[in-house]
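Most newcomers find our protein records easier to grasp once they have seen one. Read left to right, the backbone structure tokens trace the chain's path through space. Nothing more is needed to start thinking about how sequence determines fold. An example says more than a description, so a record of this kind follows:
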Amino acid sequence: MKRKKIQAFVTTLAATFVVWTVLLLMLPYSAWAGLVVKLVVWGAFSLIVLKQHDLDVKSIVEKESSLKWVGMSLLLLVIYLLAVNKFRLDYSPLSLHFVVSAILISPVIEEFVFRVVVQNFTSQLIGEIKGNIFASILFVVYHIPLWLYRGNGVAAMNCLWVLVFSLWVGFAFNRTRSMKTCVVIHLCHNIVLGLFLS
């Protein structure tokens, strides 16, 4: 039974990554189209996995945010930002697309997919630490076609930062079992990076 669950999950995940990558690499660039593709492809993945494996995620989605974890995350992000910018805080205004995509929609869809669905499911099979590592590696791989679609290329430091960030959010998820905490950490991360590192 466990083997069939894993096979079904891996098959769905692999098919989703193929569709995600092919669509992004074949479509002409449009920031808004990329957002729609993200919502449709990863929303469909989540619905399929939830239905296939009868995952109960209601308590995770409804649990309130943990201010302690959000505060620790912001402190670490400010330390990182100050180190990267050599203690200068020059900021850039945010575009409408950035606000809608990186602040309002992406943190919700990405934390639902990679914490509530992927990390939650894999943690039940292989444990919390391995589930977090697996979900975090997938989170990096998920970003690669997105970076290529935007014409940014793939940089090792971007991959490393996304991996470390995802491991941290996954650790917070394991401690709080709250999607809202992960979403707030993610949107604060995106706001700060958007303002100060764009």
